[in-house]
Structure prediction request, 815 residues.
Amino acid sequence: MNKVLEPARPPSQAHCAAHPLVGMRGVGKSYGPVRALEAVDFDLASNEIVGLVGHNGAGKSTLMNILAGVVQRTDGDFMLEGTPVARWSAAEAHRHGIRCVFQELSLCANLSPAENTRIVHRGLRGLGWKKRAGALITAALDRIFPGHGIDPHLVVSNLSIAERQMVEIARAYTSTNEPIRCVILDEPTSALGHTATEQLLAHIRRAASDGIASILITHRLNEILAVCNRAVVMVDGGIVAVRSTKGLSRSELVELTGHVEAPRDRQKKDRSTPGRPIVDHRTELAQDKVVLAAPGEIVGFAGLDGHGQRERLRDIYKTMKGGQTPVAYVAGDRGTEGVFGLWSIADNLTIRSLKTLRRGGLISDEASRTLASTWAKKLQVKAPSIDTPILSLSGGNQQKVLFARALASDAAVVFLDDPMRGVDVGTKQEVYRLIRSEAEKGRCFVWYTTELEELTNCDRIYVFREGRAVVELADEAIETGRILEASFGGGNG
Amino acid sequence: MADTAVSRPSAGSFVVPFRRWTGVGLPTLALLVMLAIIFWIRPAAMSYFGFTLLFKLAIPLVFAALAQMLVVMLGDIDLANGAFVGLITCVSAVYLADQPLVAIAIYLLLIASYAGVGLLIHTRQLPSIVVTLGLSFIWLGLAVMVLPAPGGQAPAWLSAFVGWRPPLLPLPLWLAAAAALAAHLVVSRSSIGAVLRGAGANPRAVERSGWSVLAIRVCVYAASGFLAILAGLLLTGLTTSGDANIAPAYTLLGVGAVILGGGAFTGGIVSPVGTVIGAMTLALAGSLLSFLQVPSTWQIGSQGFILFLVLAGRVLLGEKPS
Prediction:
């Protein structure tokens, strides 16, 4: 597999300058032993629009954060108009005209758009700065989103999400005494309506002809094909393809992003038809599929991150909690909703089973210790004893304890909320095996995951798009290509 | 406050000025109601001299509350504020009259240590509530070492200053107005104020725009220390002596004043004018209870009840949690 292709020159404007605006050679990023970005080469000409494509965790945001100075590269060379750059920070990036619209909104909600504009422009100060800042942001908004109706002096928390996104995009295109050379837009259209999206795309094109380059990261591939000169495809922390968008089709692009072929180690299950479903959840939304799950079944929720999978999972859990079927929930966000940081492994493991451990109204110490040590052994939690504080364990082992908490309980349905995030491969394989064997014993799993390969463990999956379960795939039909095709869907959102 | 009274067509046209009004309007209303009750009971209090007496002890609290406000603006809290003011009264009563240079050196050292606290909290990601709680005992211990029993002597010029009778308005009102105006200009109106409030609400966004939140925190903590020193100096002038245990109530009264004045613990949302008025309201609540002849055993509890009433009023008036 050839990892890095020579970047193709943009169609027609290749000869614009001797040096590209941005040139990266072998730039990589490691967090300790974890490699977030392989050595990549990336070029950007000064009037070019580049689309960056890839699934979650492919390294797009890491690459862009390095360019914006928010994250420091651990190796490789970075050149700005042919001059090597050693020290690079957010302030330096600003000074050289590189702006970034981050994926998660980064406006201060307690300030007005004018005040938020001031934060990025050190030049806006002295008497009357507020008026000048207000005029600056309003002018940018008028240019990009005519008819926006946003008051620059109204506090941002009073604006809708779409309006905030507009303000943030417009802010990136304002300039005072510092130039604008390049604007990075990370999922800018996810919160915008149709009209605003069209306005933005038109503006990106106009800006490029004025010499402001743009890098567009989006899951809506049509937008990439509509405005970009080049599409750069990333998979697993590396750039796998750089293509001119001229003549490139949507399906070719999808194919490029999903070329990881996960080895399918699934044994054919010769189950007779699944029994009566114990999960049966429907919503009021049109075109939203009914989620069904029977005992012994592993049902997956797939799709791009943030398309309503987690919300649906919680919704189902909430409606079933307190019902006749016992349920358990394994949180993916260990820190905030999983572990009790000050407690031991045993206490963390048994908290879901306190009811069954009661002897005469009090919790039996003996019963709970037996339960905890049985399950800690079963999941091979690597710890000196079950009295070890949970926070002294590695992330993977903490996650095992959370699994054990759910599996040790009487739950018939276990909800998994993307629990394998940031867990090492060995642990993953152990847990997959355990999930399959528990399913064979008749437990039902509803599993939301952002990792495509994991879905091959499922019997049936629902692919989510824009808050709805739109496609259902079963058994052999569960494969990376079809999942990606279903998650990108048709149309422009 | 009418800096942005532009006519706006959007849906928030009524809600927004109203919510802005509750920030300053509610403590003002509470203050006026209390004054009205006091003047109704004792009409003689409505005079230059009466105002001086009523608000004399509110002034150190105003500065202590502003010091607290700066810390709350960053999303932190300073539980050592009252003990620190006590320490300042001890240092001032012992050194300021005879060895002013020593006193000034100690003040500078204390401001530096406040900055150091900001540094510590930021770099080690410690909760400010824990750090400052521990610190309050350190300040108290230092104060007792400097001045084991209440006493000492305030310098004559300091006592003379707090006893000064300026034209038109009594001194406490002038000082409160000056403090409110200065803090309003710096925090709410200036261009750097926008960055400071932004750093309290969304430090990541401010950091990504190329600012150092560490530097911001260190500077804001130092400024907070400076204001607390002013509070201690004024209190020394008023009481003409030092006492390590004189101001423990300032900590929570200061927090109360910030919240009463429209601030929020989430960081980034503070109103200097509201804080000053809030501090005066809380200080006056004590006097009001004396005028109403509430027995002294009930006064602390009643003061808390008044605070509760006013804060509950803020919630009832449609303050949305953000």
